[in-house]
């Protein structure tokens, strides 16, 4: 399989500064346009995360977010001010490929870098702070317009002129479907097992689903979505 997703990247972004915004440490506003991304197995050179426990790591080296989603969030009046890439903290911005077209485990070629799709973005309360909307993270969770993360299979350089090609498909579960399953409001062991069977799924999601199955319950999402316990 060799299917071109996009002919040319809309934007590349990185940043390694952290700022406090309403008492919350975040690097989301410190991303800036880059002429290229130097991609290593464990990081993008010049890029860092304010909260490495929940962001970054080998399964989340690069964040890809569809640029057209900004327009939809604006139409939903979920952005108090005009926002565009890289306001979501993304590294890669494109037009033409979205969460319904990208599957868990997809092997992707960008320039001389080979990547694997690992998980959707799990929206957190920092997005509420970023966009001054108390339920932005919940809206992203429910709409599944979240973007996705990559692990790195071969290192190299990504440039804006590079196309993005799907090289190999490892599962039939799209990012949108993975979001739907993972954030089902009711416990569903069968659906969790379906998602767990996806080759390439991020280890943190594997462990989370396994905990749910062991405990026969879903964890409380309030802290992640709103920054406070329910």
From TrEMBL:
PROSITE patterns found in the cross-reference section: MOSC
- InterPro entries linked to this entry: Benzoxazolinone_Detox_Enz, MoCF_Sase_C, Pyrv_Knase-like_insert_dom_sf, Tri_helical_YiiM-like
Q: Name one GO molecular function term.
A: catalytic activity
Q: Which Pfam families match?
A: MOSC, YiiM_3-alpha
List residues of the MOSC domain: 37-167
Stored PANTHER family: PROTEIN YIIM (PTHR30212)
Q: What is this protein called?
A: MOSC domain-containing protein
> What is the source species?
Shewanella algicola
């Amino acid at each position: 399989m060799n299917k071109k997703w996009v002919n040319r990247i809309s934007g590349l972004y990185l940043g390694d500064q952290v700022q406090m915004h309403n008492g919350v440490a975040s690097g989301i506003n410190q991303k800036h346009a880059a002429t290229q991304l130097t991609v290593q197995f464990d990081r993008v050179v010049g890029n860092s995360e304010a909260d490495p426990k929940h962001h970054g790591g080998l399964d989340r080296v690069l964040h890809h977010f569809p640029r057209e989603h900004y327009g939809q969030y604006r139409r939903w009046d979920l952005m108090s001010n005009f926002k565009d890439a890289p306001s979501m903290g993304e590294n890669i911005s494109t037009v033409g490929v979205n969460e319904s077209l990208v599957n868990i485990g997809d092997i992707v070629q960008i320039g001389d870098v080979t990547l694997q799709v690992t998980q959707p973005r799990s929206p957190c309360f920092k997005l509420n702070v970023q966009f001054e909307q108390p339920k932005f993270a919940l809206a992203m969770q429910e709409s599944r317009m979240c973007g996705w993360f990559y692990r790195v299979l071969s290192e190299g350089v990504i440039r804006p002129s590079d196309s993005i090609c799907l090289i190999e498909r490892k599962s039939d579960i799209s990012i949108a479907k993975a979001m739907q399953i993972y954030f089902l409001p009711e416990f569903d062991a069968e659906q969790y097992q379906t998602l767990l069977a996806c080759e390439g799924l991020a280890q943190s999601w594997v462990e989370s689903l396994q905990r749910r199955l062991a405990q026969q319950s879903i964890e409380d999402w309030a802290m992640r979505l709103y920054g406070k316990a329910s």
